[in-house]
Amino acid sequence: MPQLQETAGALPSVVYGAPEILVNLGVSIVLGMIVAIIYRQTHKGLSYSQSFTLTVIFVAVIVAIVMMVIGNSLSRAFALVGALSIIRFRTVVKDTKDTAFVFWALSVGMAAGTGNYVLGGIGTAVVSVLALVLHATNFGALYKSEFILRFRYATGADSSAHLEQINLLSKRSSMLHIEHSGDGKSLQLTYDIVLKEGRTAQELATAMGALPSVSEVVLIASKSDVDY
To answer: What is the 3-state composition of the chain as percent helix, strand, coil, each rounded to the nearest 5?
Structure first.
């Protein structure tokens, strides 16, 4: 158990022995790795970073060390705040969910560093189950049936063919852009398309690509949040 040392005019300071230090650090490593594994399993999009995964583990361990250094010393806490205030973090968090994992790593590090193993373990288990359930159910996702349709159309062909396909599969469409080719033999058309219920983007792309007068069909999902 941590030992208490009396200091004049101050609260007794906590002094951790080698066994307590090793146990606290071991628990912080295990809990930090669990947080990192859950982050890797539930991450979506193209912004995954191995560096961030390792950072989560380091944060849990370092915070545990910091909590043991502070103990119950108010002066050490203020000194640490002053020391950390000179450090500026300019790394941009690409996914707002990553912030939650940083706070999660901070909390398990604090729990391990103060010897609250039960709290750290139960809290990690609850948050892990919650993260996996939300990931499995795709909670909060909103399917958007709005797309940007771009294709090249031969100028000498009947224009009613591609309009019929668009009207058949979409409940709303509007032309956004029209561009002539350099040789004057084709037009590049861009439409804003909202598909009908039960219709898919693949169905629209296949139908447009099957028309003899249409080529270079491109369908872009219209999303307000783009994963990168």
So the answer is: 50, 20, 30
Alpha carbon 139 to its chain centroid, in Å, reads 14
Burial class (CB in 10 A: 0-12, 13-18, 19+), 66: middle
pTM attached to this predicted model: 0.64
Helix axes 18-42, 117-137, angle to 10 degrees: 10
Sign of CA dihedral 114, 115, 121, 123: negative
CATH architecture of 146-221: 2-Layer Sandwich (3.30)
Of residues 164 and 45, the one with the higher pLDDT is 164
Structure tokens, 149: 């349709």
User: For residue 25, which of 88, 95, 117 has the smallest C-alpha distance?
Assistant: 117
DSSP type of residue 23: H
pLDDT tens string 71-87: 777 777 777 776 666 55
* Confidence at 223, pLDDT banded by 50, 70, 90: low
Which one is predicted more confidently, 34 or 180? Answer: 34
| One-character DSSP codes across 212-227 | TTEEEEEEEE--SS--
Report the largest interatomic distance among the alpha carbons of the chain, rounded to a whole angstrom.
96
> What is the three-class DSSP state of 3?
strand
What are the residue ranges spanned by the domains of the chain? 3-137, 146-221
State the distance between the two ends of the chain, measured CA to CA, in whole angstroms: 48
At residue 83, the pLDDT reads 62
